[in-house]
Amino acid sequence: MKVFQVLAIAIPLLSMAGIAYTREGARAAAIEPGFYETLEKLHGHTCAGSLMGARLGLAAKLALKAAGGEGKLKAKYFSLSCPVDGIQYAAGTTYGNKAIEVVDQNEHRLLLSAEKNGRQVEARLTKPAEEKAKKFRELKCKVTALPVGSPERQRMEKYVGDVIAWFKTAPDVEVVQVRLVK
């Protein structure tokens, strides 16, 4: 089943869950109030990585449920990095409930499975999302070396803030690609 077919199945079901989607599958309504604030408290700070994980986790969870996934969810993520916290929070697949496995291969790819019937989806970042995340990491490191209040630091901080805002608000189809694996 192709990505667009999963979205065609998912959109009507997501509407029943209180999440509005456009015909193309892009998020039309905001995530529940307080979602990102709670993620920030869980993770310890706001960064593109935790937001990437949240977006991957949410999109995968919704697509898996829409594709008929049943039972407890299990996640497998291929990078030991900040997105793990976003995935745990968004998909409800925590270390504590033994529902996430991390294989450190420096690859931003999530496999989310439904235990009861074995359905599985794969979620990956789009190329634009990967590029924004990479630029975020580069600039975040440089920002702290610059003098507070300097024009260069202010320019970089604005870009960092813009990337964070983009990860919070961009339509799903611009951030995440989800496909049904089985």
Percent helix: 40-55%
The secondary-structure element order is HHHEHEEEHHHE
Overall number of strands? 5
Biggest sheet descriptor:
5 strands, mixed
By oligomeric state, this entry counts as: single chain
CATH fold-type name of the domain at 3-125:
60s Ribosomal Protein L30, Chain: A
Q: Indicate the overall shape.
A: elongated
Can you describe this structure?
With 182 residues, the protein is of the alpha+beta class. It has a domain at 3-125: 60s Ribosomal Protein L30, Chain: A (2-Layer Sandwich). It is built from 7 helices and 5 strands, in the order αααβαβββαααβ. Strands 2-1-3-4-5 form a 5-stranded mixed β-sheet. Helix 1 (3-16) crosses helix 3. The longest helix has 19 residues, at 48-66. The radius of gyration is 17 Å and the shape is elongated. Mean pLDDT is 85; it is low at 1-30.
